[in-house]
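Deliverable D5.2: sample structural annotation.
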Amino acid sequence: MRTVALGINRVSYEVAVYFRQGDTIFFTFLFPVVMLGIFSVAFQGLGNVGAAPDGTGGITQAAYYLPGMIAAGILLSGVQNLAVDIAMEKGDGTLKRLGGTPLPVVSYFFGKMGQVIATSALQVLLLLLVARFAFDVALPTDPALWLRFLWVYLLGIFTSAVLGIALSSVPRTGKSATAVVIPIVLILQFISGVYLAFNLLPEWLQNIASIFPLKWIAQGMRSVFLPASFESQEPSGSWQLGLIALVLSVWLVVGLIVCRLTFRWIRKDR
């Protein structure tokens, strides 16, 4: 109970620290919202996506990009946020000082995971509100689709958070964390169906993207927010919900194992 209580206290602390950092708020919290606005406005002159030859039907650019922006937000909140944050805490001695206190490692990670879930949930809510009221995107009304959204989101955010913790051991110093992490996150967004239609990518690039979880999170979100007619545009011709759950679960387990083997309050090479 003491470990849980300390973890809950860490959640409130981590959330407060998160919203005090202007660069973090923009590049992880507001970035998907900004990108949704940019893509929706920039490409609205192209007409609706999936429209008939006479220009009727289809969905707006905002509706088309919404699933990808939600997936990108999950990746940013989990992988980028935690990988950079923990690496910097190692670099400035914060973890070393925490390691000398009675704070259990479980409580520390409870706080980090709680912060990621809280801020990511707020981010998704903001994306949905902006899409609905600023761009008039029709959101799903079928409860089954929202249930699907819930399990894809939870599996995606937990996987991203665990992988962010694992990736935090790669940067040699806190100062190099952004240089190591951000290019990885940016490249994954471009090849995973976030900014570019996945079916337009060459097959070899699709195969590479399919190794990583972001492609599957984005595909899961498309299955929730895009009309059923868009399912045929997937490379496999289907949403592959079972495979989405399997791939994300495998990455979650791999991430947990790597975290267990690599996390230290202090880097071993120091």
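Annotation notes: The two ends are 34 Å apart (CA to CA). The chain has one domain: 2-262.
The annotation will be released with the project's public dataset once the embargo ends.
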